[in-house]
Amino acid sequence: GQAQEAVSHLHQAIRLDPKADAPHFDLGSLFLKQEKLTEAYDEFRAAAKLNPMDSQAFGSLGIIAFRSGKFPVAKAFLERALQLNPDDSIARQYLESLKELSNRKAP
Questions:
Q1: What is the pLDDT of residue 91?
Q2: How many whole angstroms separate alpha carbon 15 and alpha carbon 27?
Q3: Secondary structure (3-state) at 88
Q4: Nearest alpha carbon to residue 66 among 105, 25, 58
């Protein structure tokens, strides 16, 4: 369907310009919507490597790590996202959730 066509176009865009971060980010977003967390993680990781100032890529990596139960990794990515963009309310929300989780686990 349309999603598969979009994936195909984004792969083509990556082949044409391997140093562009946007197609990786868009592909990651598409995979995240499809709950393909591993594929999404790989694409956001590529986007963050190509553009280390992309707060959204780091925020997305943090969300995937959070949803995968990798809380220390999630915390690091979300803090990086907030460093790059202090107004990132979604990263802040996930960090608050991490704090609540760690408070519940504490004796």
A1: 96
A2: 13
A3: coil
A4: 58
